[in-house]
Inverse folding.
């Protein structure tokens, strides 16, 4: 069975003292770095989705299990219908829907509180290729948003979401301090921290 393979000589590691970390293998990231460096690319990472008909607290548990604070909502045909964040579920949106509809919390679904795709804006992958992180920060600092979507077109001219940039990823990669990063939830807050000290 192993005739086509060969033995590989194992090496001693007595003189090896260090572990490589991702930060060491890449150049430091700053506001002048390419914006693509902070994009989660769905060519290599599978986006986390939820049915728009999922109950909101179940969707929140799904987020926790996947270690994300953002989900793409899809319909029965697996087509994008909107997005929902942990902040949407834990904030006022659920209570507001319950008050206006008279529904109990267990009857509130993702589609009742999500931001529909008609309300979303995005950057194109081509725009991102020519942008710096600082450009993205400037563009989004007035929005109060925590995430921005990146779209492109397939070879068959089908538009799709190619990736996402999150404020938390930017703050982590810019090495904003942990306590500060925990508080910095939007692009605007990160920009304020970097401008007024306590950042990189």
């Amino acid at each position: 069975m192993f005739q086509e393979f060969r033995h590989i000589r194992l090496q001693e590691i007595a003189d090896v003292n260090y572990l490589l970390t991702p930060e060491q293998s890449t150049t430091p990231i700053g506001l002048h770095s390419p914006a693509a460096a902070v994009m989660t690319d769905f060519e290599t990472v599978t986006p986390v989705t939820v049915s728009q008909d999922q109950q909101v607290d179940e969707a929140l548990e799904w987020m926790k299990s996947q270690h994300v604070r953002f989900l793409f909502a899809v319909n029965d045909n697996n087509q994008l219908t909107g997005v929902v964040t942990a902040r949407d579920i834990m904030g006022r949106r659920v209570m507001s829907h319950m008050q206006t509809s008279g529904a109990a919390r267990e009857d509130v679904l993702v589609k009742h509180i999500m931001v529909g795709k008609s309300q979303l804006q995005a950057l194109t992958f081509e725009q991102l290729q020519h942008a710096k992180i600082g450009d993205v920060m400037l563009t989004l600092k007035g929005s109060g948003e925590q995430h921005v979507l990146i779209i492109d077109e397939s070879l068959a001219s089908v538009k799709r979401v190619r990736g996402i940039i999150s404020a938390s990823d930017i703050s982590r990669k810019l090495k904003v301090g942990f306590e500060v990063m925990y508080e910095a939830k939007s692009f605007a807050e990160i920009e304020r921290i970097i401008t007024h000290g306590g950042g990189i």
In short: The two ends are 55 Å apart (CA to CA). The chain has one domain: 30-195. The beta strands are 40-41, 49-51, 70-74, 80-85, 115-116, 122-124, 147-153, 159-166. The longest strand covers residues 159-166.
